[in-house]
Design a protein that fits this description.
- The structure is a homotrimer.
- Chain A has a five-stranded parallel beta sheet with strand order 7-6-5-8-9.
- In chain A, helix 2 packs parallel to helix 16, helix 3 packs across helix 15 and helix 10 packs antiparallel against helix 11.
- In chain A, 46% of the residues lie in helices and 11% in strands.
- The first copy, chain A, has 16 helices and nine strands.
- In chain A, helix 3 links the parallel strand 1 and strand 2.
- In chain A, 60% of the residues are buried.
- At the A-B interface, helix 4 of A face helix 2, helix 3 and helix 14 of B.
Amino acid sequence: MDKLRIEELIRSLARLDTKSMYNNDFFLTWEKSYDEITGTFAVAQALRAMRERNISTRIFDSGLGISLFRDQSTRTRFSYASACNLLGLEEQVLDEKKSQVAHGETVRETANMISFMADVIGIRDDMYIGKGHTYMQQVAAAVEDGYREGVLEQRPTLVNLQCDIDHPTQSMSDALHLVNHFGGAENLKGKKIVMSWAYSPSYGKPLSVAQGVVGLLTRFGADVQLAHPKGYEIMPEVEEVARQNAAESGGSFTKTNNMAEAFKDADVVYPKSWAPFTAMEKRTELYGNGDFDGIDKLEKELLAQNAAHKDWECTEDLMKTTKNGKALYMHCLPADISGVSCESGEVEASVFDRYRIPMYKEASYKPYIIAAMIFLSKVRNPSEKLFELLQADKKRVL
Amino acid sequence: MDKLRIEELIRSLARLDTKSMYNNDFFLTWEKSYDEITGTFAVAQALRAMRERNISTRIFDSGLGISLFRDQSTRTRFSYASACNLLGLEEQVLDEKKSQVAHGETVRETANMISFMADVIGIRDDMYIGKGHTYMQQVAAAVEDGYREGVLEQRPTLVNLQCDIDHPTQSMSDALHLVNHFGGAENLKGKKIVMSWAYSPSYGKPLSVAQGVVGLLTRFGADVQLAHPKGYEIMPEVEEVARQNAAESGGSFTKTNNMAEAFKDADVVYPKSWAPFTAMEKRTELYGNGDFDGIDKLEKELLAQNAAHKDWECTEDLMKTTKNGKALYMHCLPADISGVSCESGEVEASVFDRYRIPMYKEASYKPYIIAAMIFLSKVRNPSEKLFELLQADKKRVL
Amino acid sequence: MDKLRIEELIRSLARLDTKSMYNNDFFLTWEKSYDEITGTFAVAQALRAMRERNISTRIFDSGLGISLFRDQSTRTRFSYASACNLLGLEEQVLDEKKSQVAHGETVRETANMISFMADVIGIRDDMYIGKGHTYMQQVAAAVEDGYREGVLEQRPTLVNLQCDIDHPTQSMSDALHLVNHFGGAENLKGKKIVMSWAYSPSYGKPLSVAQGVVGLLTRFGADVQLAHPKGYEIMPEVEEVARQNAAESGGSFTKTNNMAEAFKDADVVYPKSWAPFTAMEKRTELYGNGDFDGIDKLEKELLAQNAAHKDWECTEDLMKTTKNGKALYMHCLPADISGVSCESGEVEASVFDRYRIPMYKEASYKPYIIAAMIFLSKVRNPSEKLFELLQADKKRVL
């Protein structure tokens, strides 16, 4: 992207109202206005374009970006570290096993104790329904309180790196990928976008990717369809969000229990496994009661339930039924690839292979999306600041 | 704090003799002069005030701050990482499990191998009496030797992040909290400060917090009282330090085995559990002999011994007996809170809750205290340099 | 080193042809030209001299240096982190246990997912014959592809931090130590340098140190002798490399199964244990077949085989037979020291002690060697850039 195009992008940002993002957290995309969503895209694109042109976008001379991952992660972990580094923050991992969190510290206490010099806190807590989002809100309230009381010099921004409800850094990367693929957010209007369940031999994958996708992609006037076997329902609250989004954006949100119907004439397909919401609710309750026999039993039931839907696979035959046989295939990675990472899984190997590069690009937006979320929270006049950085033209690599 | 107040603070620092801190380590507070102690406070306050005003205090363009934690830690770990980052150093953790330390490396060898670009080494080694401080001295001697012999380009500064004898970054934060609470170090004169043992259902908490507190707070002319049940004596050498400090500062150092007597009319109370010194000595010996049955037996004895003193709890009733019923309650955190983190513990929940914000503030000084220790060791003319940074007014967040 | 000497060093670099190192990886020293090898030394020396004079050599304003260690490490780990930090990169560790690498990610996928903002990737993978080097090549191919396809904004450089074939950051540090010890690379001509096997009670030490040493030191016209008991052969391909190197450099490469013969009149001795190549091949195969009983059996055989060669120890008596009784003793550390880290090992304690400081110096080159490898890969005109940094004279410590 040349300098003129970057300037244009920054001017488009200046026309958007993103001021509520200043000193604010990023939990759920549907809490953000359309201007805030597209403003985040604009900042992400500008940061990326400047990096490509070897222009430093470092806005912090020092400061920490804390991360807390309660689940395994490669790409989100590295994306967060990359985003922090791009802006000048050093990542510090809160490893609960090395800390004294287990020994009588409350959320409120820990949140303050790690935040004396924290500008950002990124949290991934996606395992238990009803827990992750609530935990993030508690942390946010604690640091807000700490800041007001003079304990903390700054109020760290919280970035949701995946909770039980939403996975905004993923869905925003997915959406930006689509925006670039179709040449503009306005071109998503009328596109058929399918978020489909797919079979996986592993149990208990988080619902938040599917929820995040239908909760966000319904905002651009697209026809979003959620497809899954009976019993694999997502959270009803998120379905309601998708329905309202669609109504407001002039698109639609529909559901089907038929994968073939969903793929028919689709422009975009996103086939991915997840666990049923009600099962995850039950599991959370069993954990709460310490009923580990119950959990084992539930896991076996869920695996058996999954196995009844091995036909929910994204095959070449299904892909042929999409719009001109050329729907854009998406995945948050890693995927369960039939015959590669498992015997039978979410996707046929040849389909996956064909879309490998587009999927890597899809993933490549995440560091910039996270950096944009931080930028918009920390900079009062984002378009002015971006313009300043562009003009300063300080080299990232000397 | 406005700019004039910061300048005043820096001028007060200029009048103190801190030159022996240059290129020197920070092991025990009682090895430092009164000027050096209050100089550290002044630098810590100036660094904090500048950060609050968004002024960069980065003095390193590159360089590493090594950390070695032989025990779990949240706040000291994050405080150290924060301090390094504030000054421009990147933290690197020496994780003994991931390294080859266990495979035939000597302390001398490891100390040199990690220090080629290390400006600071922070160590926490508080578990075994007679070990931690000795280990830190060995590391210091090794890097001193490596520097003299041309192996190392710089001589890394050692910062004691808690040893078997002292916990200087904690006690200095505690003291700075008191200095700010009472409006100046001179106002500690004549105050009754109580370091009291308290009951905990966990065994073997380090003595170094209690020792650090009586070893430091006796230097300000306060009436420091150490309270504990019989059998919970601290190291006699540290009691002797406290006695001498009190004599020199015009305060007093007394002991009691009666918690109620200690709390009576106290201005400050610091009730916290620790293991008896003699038991820790015995434990160290048992470890040395690999006598794990002996250790198990000792642990059971200690827990039984603790349980005989459940009445050593900081209750509302006890707090009422302090000066005007309003003594400042202190704790290094995390605390054992009765009915919250354990059935019965060090402190009644309502007392703890009432002092939550002051305790968080107490903790908030630690990153700045550590940064000040590093600053004074690395900068030949600290007041000049601080003034330079203040004038340069480089923004921490652009 | 004074400024004039640094300028001279930079001018000597300007006369060397290192342009193929730009945007290139560093896998095996024998893939690099003599100019590239000595150019790496020149950059390493210049970076070190500038750091000694408190001149910043930071060329990155932001950026990540990824590390992936599949084996324990202290000095290589810290050397890599130090090198990254010296140039302005933040280290990010890819910890395969914390990531989803195990869950169906391919090498190609992971390589791209961690590289969105990675300027360098350092890998240590030395355990299985036929694996490490191949793995590194796969990673390199994956990021090359990702860069060409527009997934990555930059093409991260790969640095081999030890593979199954070579350990270039070690052998280059060893060589630079010799260059400085003898006052110039030209003075290695005609020196007798002995890479000797030595007894160790531990089994399965990597061959790559021995291979790296004979594969590199044969390039300077030295008489390199490889000594080991029968059955401890290294990879035949590397012997062939050494033979060709010697032919080209006017030196020699010989082998012996007699330690005493090797030490006789040696200028340099490098006694170190390693496992036999054929045994390592067999072990790799057993692992491939999941034959853990076979592995146990092999380990026992290897330990028994080692034990038959306890006389392969670097003793004072052997050292007396070297050139004037004063050969330079070398080791990559940590060593198995008889009576210190094990009952009987690679070296007599008094020999080791006498060479402690030289060995620490040998190790001290590694961070600068790694930094030089990165520098030459990232900077198009290395001598110009070094001169610029020297003239700019920005302070590392303010």
